[in-house]
Amino acid sequence: MTLSCTSVVVRHGARTVLAGVDVSLRPGELVLLAGRNGAGKSTLLRVLLGAQRPDQGEVALDAQPIGTFEATHRARRIAFVPQAAENPFEFTGRELVAMARHAHRGNFEKETERDRGAIACSLEVVDALSFCDRPVTTLSGGELRRIAIARALATEAPLMLLDEPLTNLDLEHAVSVAALLRLLADQGRGLLVAAHDLNLLAPVAHRCVLLHEGKVFADGPPEQVLRDEAIERVFSVRSSTPQGMFPREFRRLDKKG
Amino acid sequence: MTSRRAPMPLLSAMAATLLLAAIAHLSWAPSGPGFSAVLAALFGDGDALDRQIVLQLRLPRLLVAVFGGASLGLAGTVMQASFRNPLASPDVVGTAAGSAFGGAVAIAAGYAASSVFAAPVAALFSAVLVTTLVFAFAGTGPRFSVAGLLLAGVALNTLVGALTTFVVTFTVDNYSASSSVLFWLMGGLDAQDWSKAAITLGGFCAFGLPLAVRSRQLDLLTLSEESAWSLGLDVVNARRWLLWFACGLTAATVANTGGITFLGLVVPHLARLLVGPAHRVLLPASALLGAVVLLLADLLCRGLPIANLRLGVVTSLLGAPYFLYLLARHRRGEAMR
What we know:
- Helices cover 31% and strands 26% of the residues of chain A.
- Chain A contains nine helices and twelve strands.
- In chain A, the strands form three sheets. A six-stranded mixed sheet of chain A has the order 6-7-8-3-9-10, sandwiched between helices. In chain A, strands 2-1-4-5 form a four-stranded antiparallel sheet, covered by helices on one side. In chain A, strands 11-12 form a two-stranded antiparallel sheet.
- In chain A, helix 4 (113-125) runs antiparallel to helix 5 (141-154).
- Chain A is globular and about 60 Å long.
- The relative contact order of chain A is 0.17.
- By secondary structure, chain B is mainly α.
- Chain B starts with 6 loop residues before the first helix and ends in a 6-residue tail after the last helix.
- Chain B has helices spanning 7-27, 35-42, 48-82, 90-93, 95-108, 111-114, 118-138, 146-170, 175-185, 194-208, 215-221, 225-230, 235-257, 263-275, 279-303, 311-331.
- Chain B has one domain (47-331): ABC transporter involved in vitamin B12 uptake, BtuC, CATH 1.10.3470.
């Protein structure tokens, strides 16, 4: 199963957000999607999810255009982890995760043993069993992120798109979520992770896609993609750590020199 | 923080409260038959005049109150989920004002006097029109904004309110027409009959009962648009259908009762406080509580020794302070239930 987009162009009014992007994702790989703020990472995730139609180009899952999938069929193949805590009401974590089973159930069908198993298993994998029966309004940022990941897991989709899964997490939680993402990839899921924290994610990623000015600047193993020249061009910072080593130390680039 | 209780005992308690409120509503009035006479009339015995009062006046009024309150409670719940905003309701979005405008036109023009369907159909038509307009201004897909939606609601509420006032001024020369429109606009359950009860019941069955199989869609709509989409929901389509149901519920009620404000806003909050936000339980709870609240408000309206007290005034006086309390809690950073 391969999710891929070819020559994707997206414009917001006069601004071109994506100017011809090719990206692919397969089960078993953890792909880091890096780039500056506004580089089009979130837009690319929306396009890959089929939630936004690109102005040009195509998105396909196993060569079938994503727009031709029935909504529930697509949902059983591609899962999504949003960036922000997102619910104004006091659902419990377990109730939010249970929503993932929508695509597996008809409107009249009750929750089956298989549904309950998938929900409990996902909560266990992200280590959320201790707090999943509390209202989400009482949970911390790290706990909410685990619930969001558990919901994506409970869809049993082989591919997952994640938008900034480490943002607003303290170091302990960020490190453990990064390790969890690698574990999921090792178990056979394909993860595309849009993120800023190169130091935490590059060491666990199999591949890194660097977006710059609406195009794929580089695509390959993290230690090759995140070389000094690329980091200077894309992020305007200089690294003082030897090439290919993580964690890297960054200094702001002096524009004059 | 709340612990989630088992839903069935709570729903049963609500149903029992509704039954008690209905008995009180049937048998308690400033004049006319009391409890035993009502009971006799219901079983076909008793005084002929009492039977007339109970079967032709009080029973239709009870049914309009029960199914109207249930409809408004459901409409509010649907709108709050669809807009992912606990402050949305038929009043805020403009659906209620749209219904009131349509109904006012039908009554002022005299159509309502010749056909019982005139006011509900006109109300439905203008409710859908106003809600669609508000929705169009709020944008769709990635450009959808809840703030834009609520602001468009404010603007169209004002516009439609002005148009309704304009319609009323046309009837000023005709005293009986203008007073009937005004009294209707202020909201009340007087002058109900079996045809109106049937329309309210019909609205509830046509637009309320289908929600039962859409409770999971409503749950998903409370998530962000991408999340709901990724879990297999066609967000735009689902939201459109659900809003049409909310329009139908509101119009079928408002056409018979006039402006009953705040019920659709407050009842879902009350229900969420008791049974939590999952719609499988929240929908029946909102319907039951909506019916109970409207019955109690109508009882209060009849019981207070104030001449011509209107039901819309009572629900506003009860609902607005509760709403302000919710806002104050919201500002203190607590979750909106």
